[in-house]
Amino acid sequence: MATVETVRGPVQVADLGPTLMHEHVFVLSTEHMQNYGEGLWWDEEARVADAVGKLRALRSKGIMTIVDPTVWGLGRYIPRIQRIAEQVDLNIVVAAGLYAYEELPQQYHYRGPGLVMDMPEPMVTDFTRDIVEGIGATGVKAALLKCCVDAAGLTPGVERIARAVARTHAETGAPITVHTSGAAQSGRLAVDLFRKEGADLAKVVVGHAGDSNDLNYLMELADSGATLGMDRFGLDLFNPTPNRVATIAALAERGYADRMVLAHDANCYIDYFGAGHDEVRAAAAPNWHYTHISDDVLPALRDAGVTEAQIDQMLVDNPRRYFSRSAS
Ligand SMILES: [Zn+2]
How much distance in Å is there from the Cα of 233 to the middle of ligand 1? Predict the structure, then answer.
């Protein structure tokens, strides 16, 4: 029986239950927080307690699993997630990879095949270690890979990261989620690159596809075998909820319910707003939180004609297929 790694260890894939496929717990720049936030707007104990409360509220809605693609570049720090996971009856799946829209971090700039320090691609080594041995000294294993292809497209840095992700996927079987720009339709570039690298596109989620309402673009991606991340509910700035709902209903009607997964891309705390986080966020994006889907979106999908079986596909069956290592 297939299992998937979570912060608290392996879980049977069949037991994942309703799953939100792209939620962060924290989004932080460690340097920003340590130098400008500690003792000011960042209070570790208060933020951990706040996260426990918000995730318990999510669990009370019947969601059993979240997939947290917070990698280097977004402030991944597994010991803090472990503290939270101990206090919440929720599966938290974590990721390996790198979050960069254009440039490679300097830490990978000089190391690699043919570079100053000539060696096998160090990103593949690092991502593989996260998946096979565990992240740092935590013993927690990553269960998926994450990279970005944003509006800037396949810059040299982005392409090197994406190829390292594809190669780690080929070696480990871990599935991929790729951040894309719905407005720039950069999902096409990502899918093409993964196809050329021989990736199993059934194991690729095109993140933030749901920021677009262009059905031709979305069907083209889904027809490749990839899964559409309808995963930014509450971020009305990129696409308001009624439009996101209408797009999902239109795709479901056309037979694509087996190619969509749901999420908010939310978090308990993001340091992009600095001081005044809670107030700024409540004003700018009041629905951008973990329970918007359970409370508002699922009823709206039902009203738009999406069936209970199709909702189950998006919340349960598609995540289960994605995390099953054998070909679907
Ligand atoms: Zn995200």
Answer: 12
